[in-house]
Structures are given as structure tokens and as C-alpha cells.
Write a structure and sequence with these properties.
heterodimer; A: alpha/beta; Aspartate Aminotransferase, domain 2; Aspartate Aminotransferase, domain 1; 4-stranded antiparallel sheet; 14 helices; 13 strands; about 10% strand; globular; B: alpha/beta; 7-stranded mixed sheet; 15 strands; about 15% strand; binds pyridoxal-5'-phosphate
């Protein structure tokens, strides 16, 4: 039932909107809407019941284990939400003077300093609104750097074939050509291929480390040298920072610019698709190009650095200063953890991943890179299951839903056939991981015994498998009351 | 350990299963010389009670002000239900709905949102959100340029928010797209067709049309839309969703309607929060849907023929199309859209219209009462929605500072971005402002203006401005 189907003309919630309907006499008719916009006309109770019921049709961290690789679905502490939503924070207009927001700005400034420490970078701007916007800012800074040196030939960004889709998409948005670098059998970047690919056309390399294959890139120093010697810069996709916080700093690995996904490592909620925050960090040579505004402190007073302070900045990325509320949540999380807690994040994320990997391996699952340690995630391949039973990774993913577990990331990275990218995160208990192992093993048994059961899964969710072909062919993206 | 459930004995068991002695052994693939020094700028952890104290103290320091600022973000009443429901864990802590069967709640809500936005803007289709209004405009510019194949220029009125022009420029210039600024009428505060029609349309993909514009003024959307279409340009409407309950929606502008509508979604259910998170929306004509960036939810059926919802047309997106995607956007502003959908459902068509009408009435009252003060003049003689420009005989920076001391954030100083308007500021009164607050604003402004007139501060005397 859609909210529109509950609607009855003339029903209204009189306590939600202004009491009297004021008449307008000073806007000529040509500017006005002739009809009422056809939004639903429902009571407050109908709204509450409808959306409460809809929420119950979701899997979420609060209700289910959610081992979605590359997404870092860890617990989102409720205190972060509560204290980011104090009325003074919620009511402050972004254009009001900084004197009305010193408390808020202090939180942001402290967060900025902590992020510098965690990443080992010289400067941080909190302004990008998500990881992909951080990537955009980072690659645009690389472009600005080359342009500032009048080095105009560089028109290519290198991206490993295992990279997340946002990397090549970002390079294109920044006006670059994309060249893919292959991965070797051990899951590392193919260094010889990289050596052959770099040249005077190379603007930079975008790298995730630990990579999207869940392993720490062994040749990182060599890679950094190859790219730098060719005159390119090194971009760090920080989506997997959770695996190394406190253990390794991207700045020490030779990266020139990095983004972080605070909605991953700093545990701000994913909200069913967002919002996130994608702060960028840079080393000395990119400092002048950081996106604005940036919060600064002078003699105990906080203010924004703008285009007036940073004339070489790549500019602004959003109408205000970034996803302030997300940044506050990340700040609160960082304070609750503190330095010891921050170290433990990587330790226990890594412990959980390696434990789960060991358990699954001992129960007969194929690990894609069996000689390697898992970083905070790892890949299982169900290729042999498909060969033996015809059951594919997607079927197993759907059947996991029946067992009360959200599926891992499926079919990413594209390199590994029939793959699951599994990221348990540090906030899950051993019991939860053991339960997941049992469920997965049970499904593999089902696949051999009764493949149809798995192929037709899920059976217990509000809907069974959806017809995606129909969705794309007979496009219905807005309700027409039919 | 904060948020980590492991007991000592579990840790031992787990290490045994892995076959290592310590957790540190798990990091043995990291070259030794890369291992980090201890964190130095991260303080010791504190507990929930302590962080509560820190945050409350800082919030108190910031305080609460009576707000007369708009300029793209607006204070509206948000009914209690909206955030009570939005922060339910099932919405708050879910990921992007990639596993459709386990995400029907979010997916159906997004489909309802898309429907509401399409109806508000009078266009056929909507996506599931972009980052914010400014970046949504940039995405619309990119979409228009893609749709028009060889064209690389876009006409942008200077009556859109200056920061929007900056953001669009940051986002599109890497691809060699040129933005052509259109000047405005200093009498009407709008973009007359006569100014626009002086532009060459060679190589131009689209015209951006704001309604209302940054000054709160209503543009001649019909004439601008028809002019653009007559010259083979696409029309990108930049609109406020609250205003859409009252004003003619982009889909009905001129003879054919605007092709794309974008805007800032914050006014419908999202708190001001110092600038974010907000959300951007984008609607368009069906024929442009393949140029649309971001996620789109479609309605379909399951294996038993029951209706259900799923992400669709994903071949436009980065995770499928990679370097050829319509945009790099991945994470969007889902939770804000959850709030917006619930807000719009609660208010309904009549409630939303009442909000719009009350905003208009309050702003009219504010402008009329402030314009009576000596040294204050209302600029622009055209119809407006819920904002207006006042020209002062004194420096607005100092006036706004003095108002702040009275607990009023009084408006936006326009003198930097619009020097041609002299000492002017942009003010706004939404439905949340009471008559008393509006009167108080007048009383304080009058007192501040007259005191400064009689006894100008030294700085002004030196600068010769007084
Ligand atoms: C490896 C990697 N890079 C980049 C991104 C993009 O980040 P966001 O979704 O915050 O834009 C993601 C997120 O899914 C990711 O996993």
C-alpha cells in the first residue's frame, strides 16, 4: 500500500501547518499554481503507522548483522545522534556569523586536527559531502597542482582494475582519461604493468589500501616511487581506512591526497543511502588547493578560511560548508573512542575478519586470496558451488536474508568470479560471526540437496525476488494513480 | 572497550582459530617501517556522560537566535513525527538498498518521494536525491550538456545564489564547460528576456531559470522558457520545494515546460544545522531520464506478482558504467529524503500551501515594516516569494553585528557579491516568525540605525562613509 492510496481529498493535519490561510493579493496569477500539488492527504496516525511499517521492511545494523564489504557497517552509537541533534546545533543558520557558532566550529576544528593525525597529512578540509565528492576534490587538486606548474600534458589517471566504480567515474568528471592497471595473482597491483603504463601523460594513480580485495598492498612503497618518478601524484581512496586506523598513516605510505568516508570509519549512519562525509587530506604540495571553506583557529577564536584566504583553492563543493551534522557525529564518536579506542578499531576489525575467514575456510569455502591476511574484509568465491550445483553467489546472498543475515557485497570487485566481499567490522561479537558461519554452511548444504530452494530465495522477506528486467523495461518511477 | 564486545577468552579462542599469537601478528604484511607512531592529536577517550557535558556546553555557548536569514536554507516548523520516525534504527542504520528484498522500506519510501517531487515540480520523473541544491544544479548542467551533445556553454543568471555559481563552476569546469553569466535588472531584481536574448545561442546547451530567484523575486519563467526553447536550448528550473505548493511548477512553464528541475530540498523537513546534511533533488522529462545522475527507484513485481520496488536504470551509474557513468555520485542523502517524504506526507497539499502562504505574508509584513525606517529602502518592485532585498544608508556588516547582540540574526550582507546594489542585505521571514519577533526586528533596527546616524563610529568617519 502506497501512502497515496491512503489519501482522501480534504483530509488535513491542522496542527502541523499555520492556523490561518492568508490570502495573497500581490502575486499575479501568471506566477501561481492553478491546482493543489497532489500530495497525499492523510492523518498523522496514518503517516506514523505507514512509515513505521515501512521501516520494519528494512534490514539495518540495528536489527541484523550486515557484513557488506567495503561499506563498513558498524554500530552507529546513539550518543552521536543525540548530541549532534541538540537544538542549538540544529537551529543555527549556515549564513549566520561565526560568532554564533564557536562551539560548533570548535568541534569541527578538533575533528580536523584528529583526522590530520590519523592520516598523517598536513592539511584537511571537511567540506566534501561523501567519499565520491572527496575523490572529486582530490583529483581536481591533482589537476590544479599540475596546472600551477604549467604541466599541461598530463591527461590520464591510472586506476587498478579492482577499484571501486567511483574512482574511474571521478577521473572522468575531472576531465581525465582513465587507464586501468591489472592485478597480479596475489591480489596486488601488477607493478610491471604499472611501470609500463606511467609516463609524461600520467596525472596520478588512485589506489585503495587495503585494496577492495581486502588485502594490504605489499608493494606500496615501490608503487609510490614509480608514480612519483613519472611526475604523477598518488591518491588514496580511504574507504578502507577502518582496517588501518592507528596502525599505518596514508601520509607515511607516500600518498599526496586522500579522502576518508566518515560514514564508514567514523561510524556515522548510512541512513539508507546517505548522508556521508568525505573529508580530504593533503600533503604540503597540495595544501594551497584544498576545497573551501576550512575551519581555522586564531587565538581561541574559530572562523572559516574562504577564497579570500586561499586564492588557489579548487573552490566550493556545496552551498554551505559540508555535512555539518555528520561531522558532529564523527567528532562525538572520535571523542568516545579516544586514541586507544581508535587503535582498537583496526585491531578488532582485522581480528573479526581473519577469524571469520579462518572459520569459513575450515568449513570448506574457497577464499579468493588464501595466502594473504585479511585486512578488515576478505573475498570468498563460490565458483565451484556454481559449477557443482548451478547455484550462484546472488542466490546464496538472497538465501542469507532468509536466515536473518544481510548479504555481503556480491559481484564486487569484478575480478573475482561469483564473489562475496565480507566485512564483519569490529562491533560484531564472536557469537554473531559463528552464527553467520553456520548459516552460510547450511545454505551450501541446501544448494547441494535442494538447489531450487536456494535459487528461489528469499522466501521470508516482504517480497520475493523482484523482476529487475521489468523494472528497467516498463519504467515506473512515479505513481500515476493507476 | 567502547563498542567492541570481545571478552579476553573470546579473543584467545579467535586467535587460536586463526593460528597466530597476538592481534599484532595480523598486521604482519604491513612493512615494519610503515607502522605508525602513536596518535598524538587524538585525546584519551571519554564516556557518554562526559561527551554529553562537552556537547551541551558547546551548544549553550552557540545559543539560539531569532532568525531572519534565508538565502537558500530556511527555518521551517518540522513536526515532531518527522525526526522521531526518521531516526528509527531501521531507516537510520541501513545501507543503500542494494539487496532490494531486504530494503523494501527504504525503496518504497524513495518511490513515494520521487512521486511527490515529480508532482510538486510538474515533471515526469525524479531521482532519489543528490548531495545538495548547489551540486544538483551542477549535475543538471552536466546532464544538459550531455543531452545536447556538442554544446559546451550554459547561461546562468546572476540572480541565482552566488555560492551556487561558484559550486557549479568548481564541478563543471574540469570538463571544459563554460558558464555565461547573465546580468539582471536593478529595477526589478530579475532577469528580463531582453537581457537574455542579447546572448548568442551558438554552442549553448541550456538556460538556468531560478524561481524564486536569490533575491526572493519571481522571474518571468514563461517568457524565459519559451525564449530558450525557441532557440533550441534546454531549460533548467532552479526551484524551492515549499514555493512549489504555491507557484507554477517548472513542468508548466511556457508552452512546453522546463526540461529539468533541481533545487535544495532542505526546506521540506530538514533542520538548518549550520549547513548540512541537506539534500538536492532533480526531476526531468521522461526523455532525459538516461542523462539523470544518481539513484532511481522503480516499481516492479516479485515472482508471485506482488508489487515491489528496486533500484533501476543502474547502467547510468558508477558501479556499473565506471568511467562512462553519468556521475560519480554513490552515497547520496537518503536519510534527509526520508525526513522530507514524511514531512510532505504529513503536511499534504493544503498544509504545504499554508506554509508557503504564511512565509509570503510574514516576509511582506517584515519588508513593509522595515522599509518604513529612515535609511532603509526596499529594492525591486516585482512580486516576490519569501525574501527581499533592503538597501541601507549604512554598512550592513555593522548593522547585522549590532542586531546579533540583540539575539537577532538579521540577514545576509549582499555588498560583496552585488556591489551594484550598494549597502544592501537579504532578509527573510518564514512561517516560524511571529508578529512580535517581526516588530522587534523593526524596533532594534530603527534604534541601531538612528544611533549610528547621530553618533557614527570612528571607522566610518575615517572611511568617509558616514
Ligand atoms: C572503495 C570505495 N571507494 C569509494 C567509495 C565511494 O564513497 P561514497 O559512497 O561515500 O561516495 C566507496 C563506497 O561505497 C568505496 O567502497
Amino acid at each position: 500500500m502506497l501512502i497515496f492510496e491512503l489519501s482522501k481529498p480534504t483530509r488535513r493535519n491542522s496542527s502541523q501547518s499555520p492556523r490561518e490561510e492568508s490570502k495573497i493579493t500581490d502575486i499575479p496569477e501568471e506566477f501561481l499554481r492553478e491546482d493543489l500539488a497532489s500530495l497525499p492527504e492523510v492523518s498523522e496516525l496514518q503517516v506514523v503507522r505507514h512509515y513505521t511499517r515501512l521501516s520494519q521492511n528494512n534490514f539495518s545494523i540495528d536489527t541484523h548483522f550486515y557484513p557488506l564489504g567495503s561499506c563498513t557497517m558498524k554500530y552507529n552509537p546513539r550518543a552521536c545522534n543525540k548530541y549532534a541533534m541538540l537544538p542549538e546545533f540544529l537551529m543555527r543558520h549556515p549564513q549566520s556569523a561565526v560568532t554564533t557558532g564557536q562551539g560548533f566550529l570548535q568541534c569541527l576544528h578538533e575533528l580536523q586536527e584528529m583526522l590530520k593525525d590519523v592520516t598523517g597529512m598536513k592539511g584537511v578540509s571537511l567540506t566534501p559531502l561523501a567519499g565520491a565528492q572527496g575523490e572529486f576534490a582530490g583529483v581536481t587538486m591533482i589537476r590544479a597542482y599540475h596546472e600551477s606548474r604549467d604541466d599541461q600534458r598530463r591527461d590520464e589517471i591510472l586506476v587498478p582494475d579492482a577499484a571501486h566504480g567511483t574512482n574511474p567515474a571521478t577521473a572522468t568528471m575531472c576531465g581525465y582519461k582513465v587507464r586501468e592497471i591489472p592485478t597480479d595473482a596475489e591480489g596486488d597491483v601488477d607493478v610491471e604493468a604499472l611501470r609500463a603504463a606511467v609516463g609524461p601523460q600520467t596525472a596520478g594513480l588512485m589506489l585503495t589500501n587495503p585494496s577492495t580485495l581486502g588485502i594490504f598492498e605489499g608493494h606500496i612503497q615501490e608503487i609510490a616511487d614509480i608514480v612519483h618518478e613519472a611526475g604523477g601524484l598518488l591518491y588514496y581512496d580511504g574507504a578502507n581506512l577502518n582496517a588501518i586506523v592507528g596502525k599505518v598513516k596514508p601520509g607515511d605510505m607516500g600518498f599526496d591526497v586522500i579522502h576518508m568516508n566518515l560514514h564508514k570509519t567514523f561510524s556515522t549512519p548510512h541512513g539508507g543511502g546517505g548522508p556521508g562525509a568525505g573529508p580530504v587530506g593533503v600533503n604540503d604540495r597540495l595544501l594551497p588547493f584544498l576545497p573551501i571553506p576550512i575551519v581555522t583557529e586564531e587565538g581561541g577564536e574559530y572562523r572559516w578560511l574562504t577564497e579570500l584566504d586561499l586564492p588557489q583553492s579548487i573552490g566550493r563543493l556545496s552551498g554551505s560548508m559540508g555535512n555539518a551534522g555528520v561531522l558532529l557525529r564523527a567528532y562525538i564518536y572520535a571523542r568516545l573512542l579516544g586514541k586507544e579506542g581508535m587503535n582498537r578499531v583496526a585491531e578488532f576489525a582485522t581480528l573479526n575478519a581473519n577469524y571469520l575467514m579462518a572459520q569459513l575456510r575450515s568449513r570448506g569455502l574457497d577464499i579468493a586470496y588464501p595466502t594473504r591476511r585479511a585486512a578488515h574484509e576478505f573475498i570468498v568465491t563460490l565458483k565451484s558451488l556454481k559449477e557443482q550445483t548451478g547455484v550462484i553467489a546472488m542466490d546464496v546472498a538472497k538465501r542469507l536474508l532468509d536466515k536473518g543475515y544481510h548479504a555481503p557485497t556480491v559481484y564486487f570487485p569484478l575480478l573475482v568470479p561469483e564473489c562475496f566481499l565480507i566485512e564483519p567490522t569490529e562491533t560484531e561479537s564472536k557469537q554473531e560471526l559463528d552464527g553467520f558461519t553456520d548459516a552460510l554452511v547450511e545454505i551450501l548444504e541446501e544448494a547441494h540437496r535442494d538447489p531450487e530452494l536456494v535459487k528461489s530465495a528469499p522466501h521470508t522477506t516482504p517480497v520475493t525476488r523482484l523482476d529487475e528486467v521489468k523494472a528497467a523495461r516498463e519504467l515506473d518511477v512515479a505513481w500515476n494513480n493507476e | 572497550m567502547p563498542f567492541i564486545p570481545h571478552t579476553e577468552s573470546e579473543i584467545r579462542d579467535m586467535l587460536d582459530v586463526i593460528g597466530v599469537d597476538s592481534i599484532d601478528d595480523l598486521f604482519d604484511e604491513i612493512p615494519k617501517d610503515l607502522r605508525a607512531q602513536a596518535l598524538s592529536l587524538v585525546p584519551e577517550g571519554i564516556n557518554e556522560m562526559e561527551i554529553g557535558r562537552v556537547m551541551t556546553e558547546r551548544a549553550n555557548k552557540d545559543g539560539l537566535y531569532v532568525n531572519f536569514i534565508g538565502g537558500g536554507a530556511y527555518e521551517h516548523h518540522i513536526p515532531a513525527v518527522v525526526w522521531e520516525l526518521t531516526t528509527r534504527g531501521e531507516f537510520y542504520s541501513a545501507y543503500t538498498p542494494y539487496q532490494a528484498e531486504a530494503s523494501q522500506g527504504t525503496l518504497q519510501l524513495l518511490y513515494e518521494f520521487q512521486t511527490m517531487m515529480a508532482r510538486l515540480t510538474g515533471l515526469e520523473v525524479s531521482n532519489a536525491s543528490l548531495y545538495d541544491g548547489a551540486s544538483a544544479l551542477a549535475e543538471a548542467v552536466l546532464a544538459a550538456v550531455r543531452a545536447k551533445k556538442k554544446a559546451t556553454k550554459v547561461l546562468i543568471p546572476s540572480t541565482i545564489a552566488p555560492v551556487y555559481r561558484q559550486v557549479v563552476n568548481t564541478i563543471v569546469r574540469n570538463q571544459g564547460i563554460e558558464l555565461i553569466d547573465l546580468s539582471f535588472s536593478e529595477v526589478g531584481g530579475h532577469t528580463p528576456v531582453e537581457i537574455v536574448s542579447q546572448q548568442t545561442t551558438d554552442d549553448v546547451a541550456a538556460l538556468v531559470v531560478p524561481q524564486p530567484n536569490y533575491f526572493g523575486v519571481l522571474e518571468d519563467v514563461d517568457a524565459l522558457t519559451d525564449w530558450a526553447h525557441d532557440h533550441g536550448l534546454l531549460v533548467i528550473g532552479l526551484v524551492n520545494p515549499i514555493a512549489m505548493a504555491l507557484l507554477k511548477p517548472p513542468g508548466r512553464w511556457g508552452k512546453q515546460g522546463a526540461d529539468i528541475a533541481v533545487g535544495e530540498g532542505q526546506p521540506v523537513g530538514v533542520p538548518l544545522s549550520s549547513g548540512g546534511p541537506y539534500f538536492g533533488f532533480m526531476c526531468c522529462k521522461q526523455k532525459l531520464i538516461r542523462q539523470m545522475p544518481g539513484r532511481i527507484v522503480g516499481r516492479t513485481v516479485d515472482t508471485e506478482g506482488r508489487p515491489g520496488f528496486t533500484l533501476t536504470l543502474q547502467a547510468r551509474e558508477q558501479h556499473i558504467r565506471r568511467s562512462k557513468a553519468t556521475s560519480n555520485i554513490c552515497t547520496n542523502q537518503g536519510l534527509m529524503v526520508t525526513a522530507a517524504t514524511i514531512y510532505m506526507a504529513l503536511l499534504g497539499p493544503d498544509g504545504l500551501r499554508r506554509v508557503a502562504l504564511q512565509c509570503h505574508a510574514n516576509t511582506k509584513r517584515l519588508l513593509n515594516s522595515l522599509a518604513k525606517i529612515e535609511g532603509v529602502k526596499k529594492l525591486f518592485d516585482r512580486p516576490f516569494f519569501h525574501e527581499g532585498v533592503l538597501q541601507l544608508t549604512q554598512d550592513p556588516t555593522a548593522i547585522l553585528k549590532a542586531l546579533e547582540a540583540q539575539g537577532i540574526v538579521g540577514g545576509i550582507d549582499l555588498s560583496r557579491h552585488y556591489p551594484q546594489l550598494g549597502d544592501s542585505m537579504l532578509v527573510c521571514a518564514t512561517e516560524t516568525r511571529t508578529d512580535t519577533e517581526i516588530n522587534n526586528y523593526g524596533i532594534h533596527l530603527e534604534r541601531i540605525m538612528s544611533r549610528r546616524r547621530l553618533d557614527p563610529p570612528c571607522a566610518q568617519k575615517v572611511a568617509g562613509k558616514g
